[in-house]
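Q: Convert this sequence to structure tokens.
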Amino acid sequence: MTAPDAPPSAVVTPSTPRTVAEALRGHAAMISSGGFTAGQDEPWFAASINRLAERAAATEAALGEAVKALRECAADLEAHLDREYPAPDRLTYPDQRRKYERDSAPVLKARALLAKIEGRNG
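A:
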């Protein structure tokens, strides 16, 4: 049995790729194993690659929006914490420092994640 997304010479397996990376690994395995029939599978392969490219572009755009939103949330929370725990007090009083460090943990985590996504060490 073949699926609409399968090349004409392929047999459907129980594991349908769920991500772009899985699909690309599957394509690479098919080519390297000799499972690709030149001429017969080329139109399917080109269409499949185009669908994968479209999914990758959509994912990249969504990630860009999520990064922008996370950066804004981290900045807003940091500004709020700076108002709630003014600099001299949060350094002078141990209880204020502990609360500030506890409450600023999400900001630090967000910034570390942003640095990782943007390819910086963090």
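The mean pLDDT is 79.
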